[in-house]
Design brief:
Chain lengths: 231, 500
């Protein structure tokens, strides 16, 4: 029963909150939808913290696509064996994880030590950073230390297929039975993080301005109906 | 020919007394809210000086505006790809130390404190952290009227450029006031800098606005604007800027800064321009030719072809009429006495400045007996160095400044000749010839610059709302009520209304 809750009910609750609340905030709370930068309060430490964190988390995201979303059969069919995969995963994932953890720690220290920033840091900001820090710290620990000292756990035959099965609405919770407890905690906290996205500053990840390079540099907008002939 | 209408402003610097009434009324109307304490959509700077924010004209530091590379316009701070790569941290943006940390005073202490041996003191208290500040070290107009002279004047990027050393001795100093608002440029670099496409130029009047629903707070507009006139509201985490008081101009009223200007230095009107010519005008090779290039994009509102085409393209006839009566068209395009601020930024700014005359340097004796043509050499020796004015208003081209100052001097001489008399007419004619002007033009100028009434200074057509199709639905709605939380109260997240 516990398995059914943690690996079927809970992920769907978190996913539903993510989708519904994000949609609601985007449509009805657009004025609060932003990347709440504190750069105006002071630039100290921000360059090193923010840039390293964000690039780290992009690498980590790509790593999770490679490890969780792409089935192990794909790797086998193109001739990448388990050993090679794990070496790359440990080096690449470890580096990305360390970047994320380092960036988060410096950002947290910055929030605590600059008075202007500290005054305007909300509960949501601390919650986001601490939760990210725990999730990323666990992930980095598993990649760098657990994988090399305990066992190089093959999550591509358990967590990967289970995660993909959520999307086909045919969740295979039994796959998660033998997963090491650290991995389980990492996954559960990650889902808490997903559910928290629409309520925190994390929404800005959906606003990455991909269209910017292709749009016209100058933007004109007319009041609705002001000029029927204008573009 | 793609004709567009643009509301524009001229500020006659000769008449600015530096009273900051414009700044204060603007602040009370627009930025009297948490998150915008440090924001002045309108500010008046004493020049020479660092300005607001400090050394905003230092393009090497803030990287605002456009540069020309291989004949192509590029944002100085980097194009879209460079911006996306740098989106996690903006290395060129100004922070609160460059503006100032806003503060209030602990006024309550003045009446709360009991009897004591010393006078009660209201200590400064930061409006950002709420903590007491021992010693505010920079603030709005900290350098007003050259306060801090020998320390603050060298912070002016224009002064650093000057060949000659600027004397800071009391007898030789000069100063002028420079009121600044958003330029509502024809080629705005803030708009091009916005990754979200939230900044836009209004099609009907050219006012540059920030869509508060679309802004994501990436902050590239802040330093993308070379005039540093887009600000970051730390409370809403979105950009805000001067909106040319569009709720007022749409009703045919001047902006609040113009309405309350004590010296009546401000003029507002409409100009027509050809949007297809803007890019070419901003891309001319030599920065000194940018001023003439900018003038070439404007259209003669009296030209029947222009009038016909403008109407065809949906510009209301009342707007064309206003363009014909526009004080801006007269001062900036016809008489050419108003100049754009820093044309070298290639943004084609639309707030124009009539440069100030200043006392002639003291080695010219017997100023009362100075004959009219005596101004011809004297205009080069005015107290405000021509190079300094040229650095601000003419991309270092002193010829442009000289021509304007001569015209202004000719206007004074001619009006003196007309009303007081006692002047040698041949010498006056020589001055007018040198200034390339006529008696008729000088009289018109004197009328508009000195005695023009409200309706002559502000020729503002109303917004044509009757062409909007959902007027009935919008009854009773206020277009700005969701822009800001109620005064003195920070709410989050903000309520969204159905206003667009």
């Amino acid at each position: 029963m516990e398995e059914v809750f943690w690996w079927i009910i809970f992920p769907y609750i978190c996913g539903s909150i993510l989708i519904v609340a994000t949609f609601y905030r985007f449509v009805f709370r657009a004025k609060g939808w932003t990347a709440p930068s504190t750069e105006i309060f002071g630039k100290k430490w921000l360059r090193i913290a923010s840039v390293i964190f964000h690039y780290g988390i992009i690498f980590a995201f790509i790593g999770h696509i490679m490890g969780v979303l792409i089935p192990i059969e794909v790797y086998e069919s193109i001739g990448i064996d388990e050993h090679t995969y794990h070496i790359f995963a440990i080096i690449g994932g470890g580096a990305a994880g360390l970047m994320v953890v380092f960036g988060l720690i410096v950002m947290l220290l910055r929030k605590l030590s600059l008075p202007r920033v500290r005054t305007h840091t909300t509960f949501g900001d601390y919650f986001t950073i601490l939760l990210l820090l725990i999730v990323a710290g666990l992930g980095t620990y598993m990649t760098l230390i657990y994988n090399t000292t305990v066992v190089a756990y093959e999550y591509r035959t358990s967590i990967g297929p289970w995660f993909r099965s959520l999307f086909t609405f045919n969740p295979l919770s039994e796959l998660m039975l033998g997963v090491p407890v650290l991995f389980k905690i990492h996954v559960i906290l990650a889902f808490v993080l997903f559910a928290a996205i629409p309520f925190t500053r994390l929404v800005h990840m959906f606003s990455f301005p991909l269209r910017y390079p292709t749009r016209a540099p100058q933007q004109y907008r007319a009041r609705n109906g002001y000029n029927k002939n204008s573009r | 020919m793609r004709i567009k209408a643009q509301v524009a402003m001229v500020m006659h610097l000769d008449k600015c007394i530096g009273c900051h009434t414009c700044s204060v009324t603007c602040k009370n109307v627009w930025t009297n809210r948490p998150g915008t304490e440090y924001v002045w959509f309108n500010n008046v700077e004493t020049r020479p000086g660092p300005g607001y924010p400090k050394e905003w004209e230092n393009t090497d530091r803030y990287k605002g505006g456009w540069v020309l590379r291989n004949g192509q316009l590029h944002l100085r701070a980097g194009g879209p790809m460079a911006k996306l790569a740098n989106i996690f941290y903006n290395p060129n943006m100004a922070d609160l130390d460059d503006f100032y940390e806003p503060w209030t005073y602990d006024f309550e202490q003045l009446h709360k404190r009991g009897k004591g041996d010393s006078l009660p003191v209201a200590r400064p208290k930061s409006m950002i952290t709420g903590q007491f500040m021992d010693k505010p070290e920079w603030g709005p107009n900290w350098d007003d009227d050259l306060a801090g002279g020998s320390e603050t004047v060298p912070m002016d990027p224009n002064v650093r450029k000057l060949q000659e050393h600027i004397a800071m001795e009391y007898e030789k100093t000069f100063m002028m006031y420079l009121p600044r608002i958003c330029e509502h440029c024809l080629n705005p670099s803030c708009v091009a800098s916005c990754p979200s496409g939230a900044l836009y130029k209004r099609d009907e009047d050219g006012i540059v606005l920030v869509d508060q629903d679309a802004c994501r707070g990436w902050r590239f507009c802040m330093n993308g604007c070379p005039y540093h006139k887009v600000y970051y509201n730390w409370n809403t985490h979105k950009a805000e800027k001067c909106n040319f008081c569009y709720p007022r101009t749409e009703a045919g009223l001047p902006t609040i800064c113009s309405e309350t200007c004590v010296g009546r230095i401000r003029y507002i009107g409409v100009v027509l321009y050809d949007a297809d010519r803007v890019k070419a005008a901003a891309s001319v090779e030599d920065p000194k030719e940018l001023y003439e290039a900018q003038l070439s994009v404007f259209l003669d509102p009296f030209d029947p072809e222009v009038v016909e085409k403008a109407q065809e393209q949906g510009i209301n006839y009342s707007w064309i009429q206003s363009a014909q009566e526009s004080p801006i068209y007269k001062m900036a395009m016809k008489w050419k006495i108003a100049l754009p601020l820093h044309p070298e930024y290639r943004t084609l700014p639309m707030v124009w400045y009539v440069p100030p005359l200043s006392p002639i340097m003291n080695h010219i004796t017997n100023e009362q007996e100075l004959s009219a043509d005596g101004y011809i050499p004297a205009v080069d020796q005015m107290r405000i160095p021509m190079e300094y004015l040229a650095s601000i208003l003419a991309a270092d081209d002193t010829k442009v400044i000289r021509r304007v100052l001569l015209k202004m001097a000719a206007m004074r001489s001619y009006m003196r000749f007309k009303t007081v008399g006692g002047m040698d007419q041949t010498k006056l004619n020589k001055l007018m010839q040198e200034a390339e002007t006529t008696a008729e033009e000088l009289e018109d100028m004197a009328r508009l610059l000195a005695v023009a009434k409200y309706n002559e200074r502000f020729v503002i057509p109303t917004g044509r709302r009757e062409m909007k199709d959902d007027l009935h639905y919008k009854q009773g709605a206020c277009s700005i009520e969701d822009l800001a939380p109620p005064e003195g109260m920070a709410t989050y997240p903000f309520e969204r209304s159905d206003a667009q």
